[in-house]
Protein backbone atom coordinates (compact mmCIF):
# COMPACT_ATOMS: atom_id res chain seq x y z
CA UNK A 1 0.00 0.00 0.00
CA UNK A 2 1.36 3.45 -0.87
CA UNK A 3 2.00 5.88 1.95
CA UNK A 4 0.68 9.40 2.63
CA UNK A 5 2.08 11.63 5.35
CA UNK A 6 1.30 15.05 6.76
CA UNK A 7 1.84 17.03 9.96
CA UNK A 8 0.78 20.12 11.85
CA UNK A 9 2.76 22.46 14.08
CA UNK A 10 1.21 22.97 17.53
CA UNK A 11 1.93 26.69 17.37
CA UNK A 12 -1.60 27.79 18.25
CA UNK A 13 -5.20 26.64 17.82
CA UNK A 14 -5.60 25.40 14.22
CA UNK A 15 -7.47 27.55 11.69
CA UNK A 16 -9.78 26.67 8.82
CA UNK A 17 -6.83 26.90 6.37
CA UNK A 18 -5.10 24.07 8.23
CA UNK A 19 -8.37 22.12 8.22
CA UNK A 20 -9.16 22.44 4.51
CA UNK A 21 -5.57 22.58 3.26
CA UNK A 22 -4.13 19.62 5.13
CA UNK A 23 -6.28 17.94 7.75
CA UNK A 24 -9.33 16.93 5.73
CA UNK A 25 -7.20 15.84 2.73
CA UNK A 26 -5.43 13.44 5.12
CA UNK A 27 -8.76 12.11 6.36
CA UNK A 28 -9.61 11.47 2.71
CA UNK A 29 -6.19 9.88 2.08
CA UNK A 30 -6.92 7.23 4.72
CA UNK A 31 -9.15 5.48 2.16
CA UNK A 32 -6.33 4.96 -0.28
CA UNK A 33 -3.02 5.02 1.61
CA UNK A 34 -1.24 3.83 4.73
CA UNK A 35 -1.25 7.19 6.52
CA UNK A 36 1.18 8.87 8.91
CA UNK A 37 0.01 11.96 10.71
CA UNK A 38 1.82 13.74 13.47
CA UNK A 39 2.11 16.83 15.60
CA UNK A 40 5.47 18.42 14.84
CA UNK A 41 6.45 19.83 18.23
CA UNK A 42 10.15 20.06 17.28
CA UNK A 43 9.17 22.24 14.34
CA UNK A 44 7.09 24.45 16.61
CA UNK A 45 10.08 25.29 18.85
CA UNK A 46 11.95 26.90 15.95
CA UNK A 47 10.20 30.04 17.19
CA UNK A 48 9.68 30.86 20.86
CA UNK A 49 6.97 28.75 22.55
CA UNK A 50 5.68 28.86 26.08
CA UNK A 51 6.11 25.25 27.38
CA UNK A 52 2.69 24.84 29.02
CA UNK A 53 0.90 26.36 26.05
CA UNK A 54 2.88 24.12 23.70
CA UNK A 55 1.72 21.04 25.59
CA UNK A 56 -1.89 22.25 25.43
CA UNK A 57 -1.57 22.89 21.70
CA UNK A 58 -0.18 19.37 21.12
CA UNK A 59 -3.24 17.87 22.79
CA UNK A 60 -5.51 20.26 20.93
CA UNK A 61 -4.05 19.30 17.54
CA UNK A 62 -4.48 15.62 18.44
CA UNK A 63 -8.12 16.18 19.39
CA UNK A 64 -8.68 18.17 16.18
CA UNK A 65 -7.24 15.36 14.05
CA UNK A 66 -9.51 12.82 15.72
CA UNK A 67 -12.59 15.04 15.60
CA UNK A 68 -12.04 15.67 11.88
CA UNK A 69 -12.15 11.94 11.20
CA UNK A 70 -8.65 10.53 11.67
CA UNK A 71 -9.03 6.86 12.49
CA UNK A 72 -6.17 5.39 14.54
CA UNK A 73 -6.90 1.95 13.09
CA UNK A 74 -5.86 3.28 9.69
CA UNK A 75 -3.44 6.08 10.63
CA UNK A 76 -0.23 6.16 12.66
CA UNK A 77 -1.03 9.24 14.77
CA UNK A 78 1.78 10.47 17.01
CA UNK A 79 3.92 13.29 18.35
CA UNK A 80 7.17 13.94 16.45
CA UNK A 81 9.43 14.17 19.51
CA UNK A 82 8.32 10.69 20.64
CA UNK A 83 10.20 9.15 17.69
CA UNK A 84 13.82 10.30 18.00
CA UNK A 85 14.76 8.89 14.59
CA UNK A 86 13.28 12.07 13.03
CA UNK A 87 16.02 14.24 14.55
CA UNK A 88 18.72 11.66 13.90
CA UNK A 89 17.87 11.54 10.21
CA UNK A 90 17.62 15.33 10.11
CA UNK A 91 21.30 15.54 11.11
CA UNK A 92 22.33 13.13 8.35
CA UNK A 93 20.28 15.03 5.77
CA UNK A 94 21.74 18.33 6.91
CA UNK A 95 25.04 16.94 5.67
CA UNK A 96 23.47 16.32 2.25
CA UNK A 97 21.45 19.54 1.86
CA UNK A 98 23.15 22.70 0.61
CA UNK A 99 23.17 26.10 2.32
CA UNK A 100 22.02 27.80 -0.91
CA UNK A 101 18.94 25.57 -1.07
CA UNK A 102 17.86 26.57 2.42
CA UNK A 103 18.58 30.22 1.78
CA UNK A 104 16.00 30.13 -1.01
CA UNK A 105 13.15 28.96 1.24
CA UNK A 106 10.49 31.66 1.26
CA UNK A 107 8.95 30.57 4.55
CA UNK A 108 12.26 31.14 6.33
CA UNK A 109 12.53 34.62 4.86
CA UNK A 110 8.96 35.47 5.88
CA UNK A 111 9.25 34.07 9.40
CA UNK A 112 12.70 35.56 9.96
CA UNK A 113 11.26 38.92 8.94
CA UNK A 114 8.51 38.61 11.52
CA UNK A 115 11.46 38.67 13.92
CA UNK A 116 9.59 37.33 16.95
CA UNK A 117 12.64 35.28 17.95
CA UNK A 118 15.01 38.01 16.85
CA UNK A 119 13.47 40.56 19.13
CA UNK A 120 13.35 38.32 22.16
CA UNK A 121 16.71 36.61 21.83
CA UNK A 122 18.80 38.85 19.67
CA UNK A 123 18.65 36.55 16.63
CA UNK A 124 16.61 34.13 14.52
CA UNK A 125 17.15 30.50 15.57
CA UNK A 126 19.32 28.15 13.52
CA UNK A 127 16.39 25.72 13.84
CA UNK A 128 14.15 28.08 11.86
CA UNK A 129 16.74 28.01 9.07
CA UNK A 130 17.17 24.22 9.10
CA UNK A 131 13.42 23.52 9.61
CA UNK A 132 12.98 22.21 6.02
CA UNK A 133 15.64 19.55 6.68
CA UNK A 134 13.73 18.22 9.68
CA UNK A 135 10.64 18.22 7.48
CA UNK A 136 12.54 16.27 4.80
CA UNK A 137 13.53 13.76 7.49
CA UNK A 138 9.88 13.46 8.64
CA UNK A 139 8.86 12.60 5.10
CA UNK A 140 11.77 10.41 3.92
CA UNK A 141 11.97 8.31 7.09
CA UNK A 142 8.70 6.58 6.15
CA UNK A 143 9.28 6.21 2.39
CA UNK A 144 6.33 8.50 1.80
CA UNK A 145 4.76 8.54 -1.65
CA UNK A 146 2.36 11.45 -1.24
CA UNK A 147 2.40 14.51 1.04
CA UNK A 148 -0.98 16.31 1.27
CA UNK A 149 -0.08 19.89 2.28
CA UNK A 150 -1.14 23.47 1.81
CA UNK A 151 0.45 25.46 -1.02
CA UNK A 152 2.84 27.16 1.45
CA UNK A 153 4.62 23.87 2.11
CA UNK A 154 5.14 22.93 -1.55
CA UNK A 155 8.63 24.38 -1.67
CA UNK A 156 9.65 22.34 1.39
CA UNK A 157 8.36 19.09 -0.16
CA UNK A 158 10.29 19.92 -3.32
CA UNK A 159 13.43 20.32 -1.22
CA UNK A 160 12.75 16.91 0.36
CA UNK A 161 12.57 15.48 -3.18
CA UNK A 162 15.90 17.07 -4.13
CA UNK A 163 17.58 15.78 -0.97
CA UNK A 164 16.17 12.26 -1.54
CA UNK A 165 17.42 12.21 -5.14
CA UNK A 166 20.88 13.47 -4.15
CA UNK A 167 21.16 10.93 -1.35
CA UNK A 168 20.00 8.09 -3.64
CA UNK A 169 22.55 9.09 -6.28
CA UNK A 170 25.38 9.25 -3.76
CA UNK A 171 24.60 6.19 -1.63
CA UNK A 172 22.33 4.01 -3.80
CA UNK A 173 18.52 3.91 -3.88
CA UNK A 174 17.46 4.45 -0.27
CA UNK A 175 14.50 6.84 -0.21
CA UNK A 176 11.19 7.04 -2.02
CA UNK A 177 10.95 10.42 -3.77
CA UNK A 178 7.71 12.04 -2.44
CA UNK A 179 5.08 14.01 -4.37
CA UNK A 180 3.27 17.00 -2.84
CA UNK A 181 -0.54 16.88 -3.15
CA UNK A 182 -2.22 20.27 -2.95
CA UNK A 183 -5.96 20.89 -2.89
CA UNK A 184 -7.28 23.00 -5.74
CA UNK A 185 -9.90 24.48 -3.40
CA UNK A 186 -8.51 25.14 0.09
CA UNK A 187 -4.82 24.64 -0.65
CA UNK A 188 -4.20 28.29 0.14
CA UNK A 189 -6.78 30.07 2.27
CA UNK A 190 -5.83 33.73 2.55
CA UNK A 191 -5.86 35.94 5.64
CA UNK A 192 -9.16 37.72 6.32
CA UNK A 193 -7.39 41.00 7.05
CA UNK A 194 -4.94 40.88 4.11
CA UNK A 195 -5.67 38.89 0.98
CA UNK A 196 -2.01 39.01 -0.05
CA UNK A 197 -0.98 36.86 2.90
CA UNK A 198 -2.02 33.33 3.75
CA UNK A 199 -4.12 32.61 6.83
CA UNK A 200 -1.67 31.81 9.61
CA UNK A 201 -2.20 30.60 13.17
CA UNK A 202 0.71 32.59 14.55
CA UNK A 203 -0.42 35.84 12.91
CA UNK A 204 -0.16 38.89 15.14
CA UNK A 205 -3.84 39.77 14.80
CA UNK A 206 -6.60 37.19 15.42
CA UNK A 207 -8.51 39.01 12.66
CA UNK A 208 -6.18 37.17 10.25
CA UNK A 209 -7.87 33.78 10.77
CA UNK A 210 -10.96 31.82 11.76
CA UNK A 211 -9.75 29.43 14.42
CA UNK A 212 -11.46 26.06 14.73
CA UNK A 213 -12.62 27.12 18.20
CA UNK A 214 -13.84 30.66 17.48
CA UNK A 215 -17.24 31.28 19.04
CA UNK A 216 -20.21 32.25 16.81
CA UNK A 217 -20.03 35.95 17.66
CA UNK A 218 -16.31 36.07 17.06
CA UNK A 219 -16.80 34.39 13.67
CA UNK A 220 -19.53 36.89 12.75
CA UNK A 221 -17.35 39.86 13.70
CA UNK A 222 -14.30 38.55 11.85
CA UNK A 223 -16.25 37.83 8.65
CA UNK A 224 -18.12 41.13 8.70
CA UNK A 225 -14.82 43.00 9.04
CA UNK A 226 -12.94 40.85 6.50
CA UNK A 227 -11.37 42.88 3.70
CA UNK A 228 -13.10 42.80 0.31
CA UNK A 229 -12.31 45.15 -2.59
CA UNK A 230 -13.70 48.18 -4.30
CA UNK A 231 -16.09 46.14 -6.48
CA UNK A 232 -19.55 45.12 -5.31
CA UNK A 233 -20.47 41.93 -7.18
CA UNK A 234 -20.07 38.41 -5.82
CA UNK A 235 -18.01 36.95 -8.63
CA UNK A 236 -15.03 34.63 -8.51
CA UNK A 237 -12.08 36.35 -10.09
CA UNK A 238 -8.45 35.72 -9.15
CA UNK A 239 -7.79 39.40 -9.77
CA UNK A 240 -10.11 40.08 -6.81
CA UNK A 241 -8.38 37.83 -4.25
CA UNK A 242 -10.28 38.98 -1.15
CA UNK A 243 -13.77 38.14 -2.41
CA UNK A 244 -12.41 35.04 -4.21
CA UNK A 245 -11.04 33.86 -0.85
CA UNK A 246 -14.36 34.39 0.95
CA UNK A 247 -16.17 32.56 -1.87
CA UNK A 248 -13.70 29.68 -1.58
CA UNK A 249 -14.41 29.45 2.15
CA UNK A 250 -18.17 29.50 1.48
CA UNK A 251 -17.78 26.77 -1.10
CA UNK A 252 -15.82 24.59 1.35
CA UNK A 253 -18.16 24.97 4.31
CA UNK A 254 -21.38 24.70 2.27
CA UNK A 255 -20.12 22.07 -0.22
CA UNK A 256 -21.56 24.19 -3.04
CA UNK A 257 -19.64 25.03 -6.18
CA UNK A 258 -18.35 28.57 -6.67
CA UNK A 259 -20.57 28.77 -9.75
CA UNK A 260 -23.67 27.99 -7.66
CA UNK A 261 -22.64 30.67 -5.15
CA UNK A 262 -22.21 33.22 -7.95
CA UNK A 263 -25.73 32.40 -9.19
CA UNK A 264 -27.23 32.67 -5.69
CA UNK A 265 -25.74 36.11 -5.08
CA UNK A 266 -26.49 37.75 -8.39
CA UNK A 267 -27.86 41.19 -7.64
CA UNK A 268 -26.91 40.96 -3.94
CA UNK A 269 -24.12 42.81 -2.15
CA UNK A 270 -21.22 42.06 0.20
CA UNK A 271 -23.36 42.59 3.33
CA UNK A 272 -25.81 39.76 2.53
CA UNK A 273 -23.02 37.50 1.36
CA UNK A 274 -20.90 38.01 4.48
CA UNK A 275 -23.86 37.48 6.84
CA UNK A 276 -24.66 34.16 5.17
CA UNK A 277 -21.00 33.14 5.09
CA UNK A 278 -20.63 33.74 8.83
CA UNK A 279 -23.70 31.59 9.60
CA UNK A 280 -22.46 28.80 7.34
CA UNK A 281 -19.09 28.76 9.11
CA UNK A 282 -20.81 28.70 12.51
CA UNK A 283 -22.98 25.79 11.34
CA UNK A 284 -19.96 23.95 10.00
CA UNK A 285 -17.73 24.42 13.05
CA UNK A 286 -20.26 23.88 15.85
CA UNK A 287 -20.33 20.04 15.74
CA UNK A 288 -16.56 19.89 15.23
CA UNK A 289 -16.04 22.11 18.28
CA UNK A 290 -18.31 19.90 20.41
CA UNK A 291 -16.36 16.82 19.34
CA UNK A 292 -12.99 18.48 20.07
CA UNK A 293 -14.16 19.69 23.50
CA UNK A 294 -15.39 16.17 24.31
CA UNK A 295 -12.04 14.63 23.37
CA UNK A 296 -10.13 17.24 25.39
CA UNK A 297 -11.89 16.17 28.59
CA UNK A 298 -9.86 12.96 28.49
CA UNK A 299 -6.29 14.15 28.18
CA UNK A 300 -4.77 10.87 29.38
CA UNK A 301 -6.52 9.07 26.56
CA UNK A 302 -5.11 11.54 24.01
CA UNK A 303 -1.60 10.99 25.35
CA UNK A 304 -2.12 7.22 25.20
CA UNK A 305 -3.23 7.48 21.57
CA UNK A 306 -0.07 9.45 20.71
CA UNK A 307 2.14 6.94 22.52
CA UNK A 308 0.58 3.96 20.77
CA UNK A 309 0.94 5.69 17.40
CA UNK A 310 4.58 6.50 18.22
CA UNK A 311 5.24 2.84 19.06
CA UNK A 312 3.98 1.85 15.60
CA UNK A 313 5.93 4.59 13.82
CA UNK A 314 9.12 3.89 15.77
CA UNK A 315 9.27 0.29 14.53
CA UNK A 316 9.20 1.49 10.92
CA UNK A 317 11.61 4.36 11.63
CA UNK A 318 14.16 2.17 13.44
CA UNK A 319 14.28 -0.35 10.59
CA UNK A 320 14.76 2.46 8.08
CA UNK A 321 17.50 4.13 10.14
CA UNK A 322 19.46 0.89 10.23
CA UNK A 323 19.52 0.83 6.43
CA UNK A 324 20.44 4.53 6.24
CA UNK A 325 23.31 4.16 8.73
CA UNK A 326 24.69 1.23 6.76
CA UNK A 327 24.42 3.16 3.48
CA UNK A 328 26.50 6.07 4.76
CA UNK A 329 29.02 3.81 6.49
CA UNK A 330 28.29 4.42 10.17
CA UNK A 331 26.25 1.24 10.70
CA UNK A 332 27.62 -1.79 12.51
N1 LIG B 1 -3.69 29.32 4.86
C1 LIG B 1 -3.60 28.04 4.59
N2 LIG B 1 -4.37 27.47 3.64
C2 LIG B 1 -4.27 26.15 3.38
N3 LIG B 1 -3.43 25.31 4.03
C3 LIG B 1 -2.66 25.84 4.99
N4 LIG B 1 -1.74 25.31 5.82
C4 LIG B 1 -1.23 26.27 6.61
N5 LIG B 1 -1.80 27.45 6.33
C5 LIG B 1 -2.70 27.22 5.33
C6 LIG B 1 -1.37 23.89 5.84
O1 LIG B 1 -1.67 23.37 7.12
C7 LIG B 1 -0.70 22.37 7.42
C8 LIG B 1 -0.15 22.61 8.79
O2 LIG B 1 0.56 23.82 8.79
P1 LIG B 1 1.73 23.98 9.83
O3 LIG B 1 1.16 23.86 11.17
O4 LIG B 1 2.80 23.04 9.50
O5 LIG B 1 2.30 25.42 9.69
P2 LIG B 1 2.30 26.46 8.55
O6 LIG B 1 2.29 25.84 7.20
O7 LIG B 1 3.42 27.41 8.82
O8 LIG B 1 0.88 27.08 8.84
P3 LIG B 1 0.42 28.23 9.79
O9 LIG B 1 -0.98 28.01 10.12
O10 LIG B 1 0.76 29.52 9.14
O11 LIG B 1 1.27 28.08 11.09
P4 LIG B 1 2.31 29.10 11.69
O12 LIG B 1 1.60 30.40 11.77
O13 LIG B 1 2.67 28.53 13.01
O14 LIG B 1 3.47 29.13 10.76
C9 LIG B 1 0.36 22.40 6.34
O15 LIG B 1 0.13 21.37 5.41
C10 LIG B 1 0.14 23.73 5.70
O16 LIG B 1 0.55 23.75 4.35
Q: Structural class of the secondary structure composition?
A: mainly alpha
Give the mean pLDDT. Answer: 95
Which oligomeric state applies? Answer: single chain
- Strand residues, percent: 5-15%
Helix content: 55-70%
Rg, rounded, reads 21 Å
Strand arrangement within the widest β-sheet reads 1-2-3
What's the total helix number? 14
Uncertain regions: pLDDT < 50 for 5+ in a row?
none
Please give a structural write-up.
- There is one protein chain.
- By secondary structure, this protein is mostly helical.
- 56% of the residues lie in helices and 7% in strands.
- The chain is built from 14 helices and 5 strands.
- The strands form 2 sheets. Strands 1-2-3 form a 3-stranded parallel beta sheet. Strands 4-5 form a two-stranded parallel ribbon.
- Strand 4, helix 9 (154-171) and strand 5 form a beta-alpha-beta unit.
- Helix 3 (51-68) packs across helix 13 (270-296).
- The longest helix is centred in the C-terminal third of the chain and has 30 residues, at 299-328.
- The model has no long low-confidence stretch (mean pLDDT 95).
- The site of adenosine-5'-tetraphosphate has 21 residues, from strand 1 and helix 1.
Produce a short descriptive summary.
This protein has helices at 16-29, 41-44, 51-68, 85-94, 99-103, 106-114, 116-121, 126-140, 154-171, 216-224, 241-254, 258-264, 270-296, 299-328; strands at 3-8, 34-39, 75-79, 146-148, 179-181.
Amino acid sequence: MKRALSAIQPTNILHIGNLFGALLPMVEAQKEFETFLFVVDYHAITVTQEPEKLHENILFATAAYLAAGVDTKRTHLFQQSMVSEHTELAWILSCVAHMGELERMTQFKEKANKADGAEKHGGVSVGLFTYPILMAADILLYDTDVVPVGEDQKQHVELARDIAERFNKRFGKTFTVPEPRIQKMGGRIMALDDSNKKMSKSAESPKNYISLMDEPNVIRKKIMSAVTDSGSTIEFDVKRPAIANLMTIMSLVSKQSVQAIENDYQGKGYGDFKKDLAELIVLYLTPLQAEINGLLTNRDELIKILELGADEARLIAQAKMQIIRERIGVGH
